[in-house]
């Protein structure tokens, strides 16, 4: 006998875990979570056997990004203690995931975002295959606007008034703005990565956020930013949660206006660099030696950089695609420029994108 209900069901591999996060905060169904694998207490220090390292989860960061646990099975509000037992869908499941990108059924894979505030750990960009990446099994238009190339701007005087391309489809109190990266004018003069509510829409190109997006300090001018606007009524999609190696997740990085010579990247995964900026000196990313054979890392520039470039400097010389010595990637200044490396005792180029992406 034909069982239509069984035929339409999905496979959800579920686990109960202790979610520790911001108290009195509601977390969105489908966001990614990571294990706290180095959890320790005075009574149970790092040298002790502690099973909580396999059931204690937290929001993804640039330090736990290689410990992907799964996605929240339901909305959950953490109580005043800041922790609660919740159900997650583990890798290997087919379930609903929270989106930060439009999807097309069966292509391409999307990866969970690490870093940022509460509810930012949506599936936003392409990363590596493995735990933390998903294959969409539903076509969904989840974004009302894509400003990843650094086309947004937030007024420095209030930190709320934001210039967008077209707000005609935005709905106050429903849709969300996710700030991914921002212009950095110096110490504490940038925007805080996170999800923001829309308080009002004042014109076709201007909206007002519900809370101040600035970090402490006052910028001298409006701050540009990489952002997306998420359809709050249509931000979930059915997807298969990939298994295997850790993808390392994806993160977004801000390039300082003045340049930087000692930025330490997230190890493993793919770092997206927000552009649309004029920077005074090269933004130097110092890549340490890897620690795991087969470790993968990538850097993708999303918006154009003017005047100076982004570089990726290796701590120890590696190898180019042609087998010659590699000290750094340089002249990365066009949107889409990218480099990818793999660690096998030294870093070796596994791929690069862009005519201006030179290996030195």
Structural shape: globular
Percent range of helical residues:
under 10%
The rounded Rg comes to 21 Å
Number of strands: 30
Low-confidence stretches: none
Strand order of the largest sheet: 12-13-16-15-14-17
List the domain count as a whole number.
3
Number of helices: 1
The end-to-end distance, rounded to whole angstroms, is 66 Å
Strand proportion, as a percent range, falls in 35-45%
**Mean model confidence by pLDDT:** 94
Largest sheet: 6 strands, antiparallel, barrel
Helix-and-strand structural type: mainly beta
Q: How would the blueprint of this fold be written?
A:
Layout: H1 4-7, E1 14-20, E2 26-27, E3 32-35, E4 56-58, E5 68-72, E6 76-77, E7 83-89, E8 94-98, E9 110-112, E10 123-125, E11 133-136, E12 143-154, E13 161-163, E14 176-182, E15 194-203, E16 206-209, E17 223-230, E18 236-241, E19 250-254, E20 260-263, E21 269-274, E22 277-278, E23 283-287, E24 296-301, E25 305-306, E26 310-319, E27 325-332, E28 338-343, E29 347-353, E30 358-359
Describe the protein in words.
The chain has 360 residues and is mostly beta strands. The chain folds into 3 domains: 11-40 and 50-140 and 236-241, no CATH class; 143-230; 255-359. Helices cover 1% and strands 44% of the residues. The strands form 7 sheets. It has a 6-stranded antiparallel barrel with strand order 12-13-16-15-14-17. A 5-stranded mixed β-barrel has the order 1-4-3-5-7.
């Amino acid at each position: 006998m034909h069982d239509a209900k069984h035929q339409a069901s999905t496979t959800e591999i579920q686990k109960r875990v202790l979610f520790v996060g911001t108290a009195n905060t509601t977390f969105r169904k489908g966001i990614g979570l990571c294990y706290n694998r180095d959890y320790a207490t005075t009574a149970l220090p790092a040298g002790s056997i502690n099973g909580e390292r396999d059931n204690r989860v937290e929001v993804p960061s640039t330090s736990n990004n290689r410990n992907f646990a799964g996605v929240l099975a339901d909305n959950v509000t953490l109580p005043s203690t800041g922790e609660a037992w919740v159900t997650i869908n583990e890798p290997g499941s087919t379930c609903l995931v929270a989106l930060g990108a439009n999807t097309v059924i069966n292509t391409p894979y999307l990866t969970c975002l690490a870093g940022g505030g509460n509810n930012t750990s949506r599936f936003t960009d392409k990363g590596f295959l493995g735990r933390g990446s998903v294959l969409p099994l539903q076509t969904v238009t989840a974004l009302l606007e894509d400003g990843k190339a650094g086309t947004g701007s937030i007024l420095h005087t209030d930190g709320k008034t934001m210039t967008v391309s077209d707000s005609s489809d935005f709905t106050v109190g429903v849709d969300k703005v996710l700030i991914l990266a921002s212009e950095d004018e110096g110490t504490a003069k940038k925007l805080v990565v996170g999800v923001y509510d829309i308080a009002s829409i004042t014109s076709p190109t201007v909206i007002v956020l519900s809370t101040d997006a600035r970090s402490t300090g006052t910028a001298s001018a409006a701050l540009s930013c990489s952002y997306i606007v998420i359809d709050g009524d249509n931000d979930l999609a059915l997807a298969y949660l990939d298994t295997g190696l850790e993808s390392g997740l994806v993160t977004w990085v801000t390039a300082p206006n003045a340049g930087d010579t000692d930025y330490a990247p997230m190890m493993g995964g793919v770092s997206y660099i927000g552009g649309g900026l004029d920077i005074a000196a090269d933004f130097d990313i110092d890549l340490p030696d890897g620690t795991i054979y087969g470790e993968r890392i990538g850097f993708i520039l999303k918006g154009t950089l003017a005047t100076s470039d982004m570089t990726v400097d290796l701590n120890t010389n590696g190898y180019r695609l042609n087998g010659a010595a590699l000290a750094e990637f340089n002249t990365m200044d066009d949107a889409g420029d990218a480099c990818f490396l793999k660690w096998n005792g030294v870093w070796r180029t596994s791929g690069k994108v862009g005519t201006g992406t030179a290996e030195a």
